[in-house]
Specification:
The protein is an alpha+beta fold. The chain is built from three helices and four strands, in the order ββαββαα.
Length: about 110
């Protein structure tokens, strides 16, 4: 299970109109984990992404610098909640598996 590394420091980078928060995760997760996280974030409209340089995985959340307290906390909570969802997300089936599922679904409609 992927967890936030609360023993490490969060990275905060301020730019003129944006603040980027990088949340450290404990160790390196599975290679496919960042892809699953990013896909979930996109589906939820959350501007967050997972980055996995060697040695540590990060969840990076860019926000407008003028974001109010409640919106900032809500965005960070949403980014955190997606961590567990990315752990539980199924890998998308390959083309052959997807075709089998579609044919099975189609056969079910035909009775």
């Amino acid at each position: 299970m992927t967890e936030i590394d609360t023993g490490a420091d969060v990275d905060i980078v301020w730019r003129e109109h944006e603040v980027t928060v990088s949340i450290p995760l404990a160790g390196d997760g599975p290679a496919e984990w960042p892809r699953r996280y990013d896909a979930l974030a996109r589906r939820q409209g959350l501007a967050a992404q997972a980055q996995q340089p060697p040695g540590r995985t990060w969840v990076v959340v860019p926000l407008p610098a003028v974001t109010g307290r409640s919106d900032l906390v809500a965005a960070l909570d949403s980014a955190r909640d997606l961590i567990a969802k990315a752990d539980a997300a199924e890998e998308a089936p390959d083309a052959e598996q997807a075709a089998a599922v579609i044919r099975e679904w189609w056969a079910g409609l035909r009775g």
